[in-house]
Amino acid sequence: MTTIELLDILNQNQDIPFQELLQKIPEISFTNYLQMLLDTHHVSKSEFIKKTNLERTYGYQIMNGTRVPSKDKVLQCAFALSIDLHDTNVLLTLSSNQNLYPKIKRDALIIFGINHHYNLMKMNELLDEYHYPIIE
Fold first, then answer.
1. pTM of the full predicted structure?
2. What is the maximal distance between C-alpha atoms in the chain?
């Protein structure tokens, strides 16, 4: 079932037993979603670790689910994969971090960087230019 189909069911006032609805929703985790993104972008785990600039052990712990990444570590992952805002916010949600919010100035700059396909270095230069903490 696609996300759109699921939202349609949830938005309609259908008399579907909630237990039945829950069975239709697939389990998804941060690690599953990250692996799906790696597969979609044809990026190996070792290549991903290099692109994120994470310490090797920490990067593998994030990928296998033994460490829950902070918001900035998730953003490092997002910039390494050059993913869009939607996928970035999904990763943030699945890692129990807050989504990027355009009314927060640092987040607005990060959203701008994502939408303009900045790499992590260019993003950090922009953040530094405006005196916001870099992503590390």
1. 0.84
2. 54
